[in-house]
Amino acid sequence: MIQETNAPVNPDARRLVLLKRMATLCALLILAITSISAFIRLANVGLGCADWPQCYGQNLRQAQQGSAAKATESAATVGARMVPLVIAVAALLLIVVMAMACFTAQPVLRRAGWMTLALLALALFLAVLGRWSSGARVPAVASGNLLGGFAMLALCWRLRQEVSGQTGGAAASATATDTAEPSGLARMQAWAWLGVIVLLCQIALGGLVSAGYASLSCTGLPDCGVSFSSNITPASLDPWREPVFAATAKPPANPAGAASHMAHRYGTIVSLLVLLPLGLAALRYGRRRAGWLILSLLVVQIYLGL
Q1: Across 229-258, average pLDDT
Q2: Coil, helix or strand for 223?
Q3: Contact assessment for residue 58 and residue 249, using Cβ atoms and an 8 Å cutoff
Q4: 22 with 164: CB under 8 angstroms?
Q5: pLDDT tens digits, residue range 39-61?
Q6: DSSP string, 38-70
Q7: Chain centroid to CA 85: how far?
Q8: Which of 83, 141, 148, 170 pairs with 33 at a CA distance of 20 to 30 A?
Q9: Residue 104 to residue 228: CA distance in whole angstroms
Q10: How many percent of the chain have pLDDT more than 70?
């Protein structure tokens, strides 16, 4: 006599697996939105334009001088404008489905549910902010988009880790770190939070450099090649201040942007001093995948910055 040995599928386990997959997909969608939006923003300010660097920021310069800005967007930029909108709608629907999966079935996944509600709040905030993104002249709008996008990306990944821990997906990782001393793990966790703060500041400064038309404000290394006493003031780092261009297109077009540019350079050094030990500590305490990923991305980022 043959007996069936197939155990019934746990509905709660199926829900957790589905939620994990949706969180992963949502993270990929947000990463795509952030990348395409960065391409559009950098193309609009004039990075890589035909008569570089004279064309850098020419639309804003013409607007400040009272002349009409020329329509110089490439076909790729025009076509890319619709893609983030479509992906954003898909991501918003996915977040709503994840929130329903957390709260409408028993047992209620409270921690994961609060993360989905935070994702929903950030998505609505960015949707409102996006209304002013295309024609905004102040760097605060671009910085808000950047920080909001990366916050959503981090929340999606944290949600994935939360659900993965409940399904047993974090068992191997926990086993790898159980042999390390608790004091060392506590120091590594505190150092990781410091790394998060440093990265947030560096992202905000990067948005200030990009949206503040400060890419050409520094013409040399290691100094900026401009007069700090005459061009750099506390208002230079104000994200609500519209960049003021020089009368001519000769670099540096925005001398006051040297403050944000140099701050971003110094931020790179601080990031290196914080993230390099963090990656090495992760390797030491068994988080080999995370450690190698931190070190690899750090090398790539510094190379791109140079």
Answers
A1: 68
A2: coil
A3: yes
A4: no
A5: 888 777 777 777 777 777 776 77
A6: HHHHHHHHTTT-TTTTTTTTHHHHHHHTTSPPP
A7: 17
A8: 170
A9: 59
A10: 74
Q: Which amino acid is at 90?
A: A
CB 244 within 8 A of CB 64: yes
Higher pLDDT, 212 or 120: 120
Structure tokens at 254: 């925005």
Q: Is the pLDDT of residue 253 over 60?
A: yes
Cα 34 from chain centroid? Answer: 7
Q: In the structure encoding, which two tokens stand for residue 253, read together?
A: 């077009």
| DSSP code for 243 | P
For 104-144, the pLDDT digits (tens) are 888 888 899 999 999 999 999 988 887 776 666 788 888 88
- Rounded to an integer, the average pLDDT of 20-25 is 94
**Alpha carbons 207 and 239: distance in angstroms, whole number:** 9
Q: Are 49 and 216 in contact (CB under 8 A)?
A: no
How far is the C-alpha of 215 from the C-alpha of 210, rounded, in Å? Answer: 7
Closest CA to 152 of 37, 273, 44, 41: 37
- The set of residues, in sequence order, having a beta carbon less than 8 Å from that of 253 and lying 6+ positions away, is 53, 56, 57, 61, 213, 216, 217, 245, 246
- If you search the block for the tokens 């009272």, which residue do you land on? 66
CB atoms within 10 A of CB 57: 25
Residue 173 has pLDDT above 50, yes or no: no
Tracing tokens 């230079």 back to the chain, one arrives at 236
In angstroms, the CA 258 to CA 209 distance is 9
